[in-house]
Each structure stands twice: as C-alpha cells, then as structure tokens.
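Troubleshooting log. The previous run stalled partway through. Resubmitting the same two chains, unchanged.
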Amino acid sequence: MKENAASRVVFILLLFLSVSLLNGQSPPEKPKLVKCRSPGKETFTCWWEPGADGGLPTNYTLTYHKEGETLIHECPDYKTGGPNSCYFSKKHTSIWKMYVITVNAINQMGISSSDPLYVDVTYIVEPEPPANLTLELKHPEDRKPYLWIKWSPPTMTDVKSGWFIIQYEIRLKPEKATDWETHFTPKQTQLKIFNLYPGQKYLVQIRCKPDHGYWSEWSPESSIQIPNDFPVKDTSMWIFVAILSAVICLIMVWAVALKGYSMVTCILPPVPGPKIKGFDVHLLEKGKSEELLRALESQDFPPTSDCEDLLMEFIEVDDCEDQQLMPRPSKEHTEQGVKPMHLDLDSDSGRGSCDSPSLLSEKCDEPQAHPSKFHTPEGPEKLENPETNLTCLQAPQSTSGEGKIPYFLANGPKSSTWPFPQPPSLYSPRYSYHNIADVCELALGMAGTTATSLDQTDQHALKASKTIETGREGKATKQRESEGCSSKPDQDTVWPRPQDKTPLISAKPLEYVEIHKVSQDGVLALFPKQNEKFGAPEASKEYSKVSRVTDSNILVLVPDPQAQNLTLLEEPAKKAPPALP
Amino acid sequence: MDSKGSSQKGSRLLLLLVVSNLLLCQGVVSTPVCPNGPGNCQVSLRDLFDRAVMVSHYIHDLSSEMFNEFDKRYAQGKGFITMALNSCHTSSLPTPEDKEQAQQTHHEVLMSLILGLLRSWNDPLYHLVTEVRGMKGAPDAILSRAIEIEEENKRLLEGMEMIFGQVIPGAKETEPYPVWSGLPSLQTKDEDARYSAFYNLLHCLRRDSSKIDTYLKLLNCRIIYNNNC
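Second attempt completed without errors. Output:
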C-alpha cells in the first residue's frame, strides 16, 4: 500500500512536469550583457540581450557593485536607454573604477543571471556623431569659391573644460561616385572644400572620436547641389601652358647646345686682341723675319717724300773735352707726329748724351710712341732688328763722356728714327762749346791725317753754321773760327780765341745745321738753319755728305760738290789759306 | 707688472664669458614668465603643457596596447580580472573619480597627485622591464612598449616638475607617494600567479596613465586656455 502511494506521487509529479514542459514554461535563459557605452565620460548605458523567457513573463534586473565596495546596487534607470538597457547617470558614474554588472532574468519558474561584466567607464567611451552639420557654398571675391562645412560637437561632451578631447572626420563624394574623399581635423569644427565639380550633388558625412575611445557612428548624410555655373579653376589649361613652356625651354636648350659657341659669341663678342696689320704670325713662327718685315714695309710706312719735307732736324756739332763730333738733335723741331725727346744731361760734358741708358731706351721705344702704321709694338726685341729700319744702335756704354753714341740710322730714309729735337729749355747753359768751329778743332786734334778732309769739312761745317747769322759779324766770327779751326797744332792758342772772340756767339743760341734729308746711302743732307730774327732770306741749300764714321764715332762730313754755294766758299777760303800751315 | 697682466687677463676672460653668454642665449626659445628665477625658465608654460600632454597621451596609448597584447596572449579564459580588483598600489592616493570632483579639485592638488603617481611608478616600471625580459617567450610588442613607457615616464616626471615649479612657485614637493611592493609576486615560480601579477600591474598602469592624462588635459584647458578649449 505504501509503495503504491509513493510511486503514485512520483508519477503525478512527472506528469505535472511534463505537462508544464509541454506548455513551454521554464525559468528564463541567462541574459547576456551586450555592451556598455559612455557618450561623454560622465554617464554610461549598458544593454543586454535577453535569452529565452521560458514561456513566462520575465523581468530583468540589473545589479552591480563597484570595485572596492561590497554593496550591490540595482540599475537606477531602465528606461532612458531603451528596452533592455540600464542608464547610469552622472551621480552613479565613477571613472577609473571597475563596475561588476550582472543582469538577472526572473520569471515564475526561476531566475537566471548573466555572466558578470567588468566595466571601466574610461575604456567604453563612444561619443554621439557630431551635430548640426551645415553645408554652404561660398563665393568670395578675389578668391576661389569653396564649400564651407560646419558642425558642432556631439551632445553630452564637455569639450570646453578639457574633460573630453575630440577629433573629427568628414567624408564627401559626388552622389554617383563610389569612393569617398575623407578629411581629418584634430579639433576645429569647420572645414573648407575646394575643387568641386560643378553641376554635381555632393553627399557629406561626419563622425568623431575621443582621444581614447571608439569612433562614433556616421552622421546622417547631408547633401548639397553645386550649381552649373560654379567657377572652378581649370587645371587643364595650366597643364597645357606648363607643357608648352617646357617644350620651348627644351628647344632653346637644344639650339644653344647645337650652336652654342656662335650664339655665345654673338651675345658676348670676344674682346679684340691687338693685331698688327700685315703682320703674319705664321711668318714669325717660321722665323723668316725678312718676309715679315717686308710685309710690314708694304703697309705704307715709312712716310714718303712728304715726310722728308717735314723732317727738319738740326745737328748740333760741337767740340767737347772728349774731342768727339757729336751730332746733336736740333733744338727746335716738331715733325708731324714726332714727339720731342728728352735728353739726359750728363755731368761730365754738360750735354745730353746719346748713350745715356734712359735716353737710349727712350729712343728705342720711340717707334711705339710714334703714330705709325704699326698697330702694336711687338716688343723691344723687334726694334733692335737692324732690318726693320728702326734701329737703336747699341754702342758700348761708358760712364765718361767718351764713347758717346752717335744716333743715326743704319739705312733707309726713315725719318722717324732721327733723334728728335728737344725743347730748348732742356739745354744746359753750361754749354761752352756751341759752334761747329770748336768742334772742328776737336776733330783736327783727333784725326791728324785727315786734315785736308777736315779742312774741307771745316769749311763746310762753317758754311753750314754760318747760315745762322747772315750779318757780317756772324761771318767775321765764323772766319775767325775757321782760322782757329785750321791751325791744327795751335790748339792751345786756338782754344782761347774762339772763346775771346765769341762773346756774341756765346750769347747767341747754338748754331745748327739743318738736316734736310737723309738719302738712301746715308747721306746727310744739311742745310743752314733759317734765322727769322735776322730776316734771313737765305734760301740757299747746302749739303754735306757724311763720308764715314770713324772709330771714335766721329761723323766725317764731305762737301757735296753739287750743291755748293760759291759765295760762301770764297770768303773763308780767302782767309783760311794764310792760317794753314 | 704681473698684477697688471693678470687684471688684463681677467677682464679679457670676463669679456669673453659675457660675449659667449650672449651668443648662447640667442638660441633660447620664447619669452618666459618666470617667478622662480632663471633656473628652469627657458620654455614657456604653454609649451611645457603641450609637451606634457603629448607625452601623457603617448604613455596611455602604449599602456593600453601593452595590456591588450598581454590579455590576448596570456589571460584568455583565466579570469585574471577578478583578481585585479583593488590591486593597484596607488589606490591610496585621493584622486578624483569623476568630472565634478576633478573640476572642484584645486590645480595644486591635482598637480601634486600627478607627481605622486608619476613618482610611484618609477620603481614598478623598472622591474616590469626586467621581469618581462625574463619572461618565457615574451613578445617584443610587450617588451618594447615597457621599455618605452619607462623612458617616457621619466621624461614626463621632469616636465611635470618644471610645470609645478612655474605654476606654484616656492612649493616644496615633499608629498609622499605610494610604494610598490609587488615584486615578489612578479618573480614567483607559479606561472599562473606570475601572469596574474603581471596582469594586475599592467591593468593598474593603464588606469593610472589614464588618470594622469585626463588630469593634465584638464589642467591645460583650465590654466592655459582658461576653460575655453
């Protein structure tokens, strides 16, 4: 009997259970917490997912406790967050504290609790999308037009105090395009978009993110229509211009490369170097100086007969201690283009000497100064070439008055090489010998064997010098001079005489013989100097010929039989013979 | 004669010093507001705050990454989190827990809290690097970040001391800071226990770096931008 009762009870229970199961009633399934999110690090909301409710009405509760506390709290707000949510307000939110949250499902059959969720609000921050997204097309003057996008921070975020740090991302695209153009802004709440295609409809979206947390959702799309007449900078034109200029540059570079040198010379012509007309460098290289010089000769140099007329040179013949006959350049003379030479005055003779080094160098350099046909002076070495007709004879130099270099041409009627006259101011007043007569004496003393010739020379020299004075006095003095000159052994007596009798002479300027011309064979053509003071109408021309040059550099003059003036000859001839031994 | 020469020498040396000082001072940045004297006054407060905020942000990023890496590798399904509650050695510091509390805290207090946190993490960071190195199969991601965090922490501490000197001149920094004593648990032989200890440490590091970062950003907006960020 008892056994029957027990088995009956079990059977009934089983029936009851099976009946209830068949009805679908059971304790609820464990709910599941889905996520918790904080929009601004000040509040947060948790959502759960309910399980099967077991066929019976089920209540869900959320309980939690904080880290470091034992007290269990229930969710303060089930509604704000929507169904199956729990909203924690500011009062209930603590940062940097772990929340242990559990959701319980309760129905008639039982209670089911979810797995606990450990939540730290710091790490569950996900803001709302930015709000108030506005789009505006702007056309400022003098600047490119653009699309101006503005927005404001999402709700529930305190950005001003710095509690919530936020960054934004905007994306836009033409309506029919597939790819979005994204822009990132770290803080600001506006953005300007340039380079928009006119006639298109653009869609714009924005989202944001906290400094540490999750990206928000994209905001709803905003759209804007770009009008057809929207001015946009056309880059294709600029590209065309750039390509064209590049092509032009390439062409120019190529042209320069091909004709580089000629173009350079066209733009920057080379500085012309010195060039001698008629001067062939190659001839010089070959060493054929004769041809070279002939080429130079042909260049209308030296001056022709005109120059001969112009050549007015005086030879100062005077005696000196050294007993040398020295040709002296005349005081006055300026040839066309010929520059006066400066004579150095030696201390010994009181005369400018031809052998002074500076003078020699001057004379050597003289052709350079001469406005000749030569374009460039080729150098002093050339001048010393005897074939050039421009010679400076390099006589041995001596410190004393001896060995004075006569300066004369080697050949050719090159008037430019004649010693140039020096200005009268340079003449030393120390000259004590200033007439040919004295020189004659010297010459007599020097060359005894050539007395006769010297006599003749004397005569002619006298004749030559005589022309300076046309007055009788002058002649008288000349006669006296000639007397003195012809007495050879009486040098001692001769000497004072001219000095005594030559007060006039001494007061007078030096007597000169004019060199009329120099012929081909070295003939000095002299003629008396015209003295305007005396109104000398003397136009006769007398010539002396240089017969030779002695070893001691004495010019030996010989009478020119062709151009003798008989009247002049007579007088000295009368008086000379008695004086002759 | 000697004195004359030496005085000349001295004057020349002085002149040289002055000139060199002037030349060196050319490279100094911006104009400082310097109540503390010429000691640390070469960078403006704004620049100091900018720099500090950058560094604190960086440290927090690194800490988060390191924690996530460790969690993914060693803590899956182990329930270490349960043990991590109340395990931070810096919990004794009275740090504000929400925005209102933080906004009501004076900046002096906030700054000294920051300094205390930074100082209290010097030692644990050093040991963390050592111990992670010795960890079996430790991924380079964790180790490199640990090294970087240790370095940046020192830098931030220096910067914070400078800021403190400028904002609160004359204040003495004698606040005590919490001492970490979790080294034995890092070195225990029980692997689970050791990993749990590491987990705790990384969890606390992530949290404290977040605190420092948030407080600094708050101070930056308050002091430099006058609550108008």
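Takeaways: The first helix of chain B runs from residue 2 to 24. The mean pLDDT of chain B is 86.
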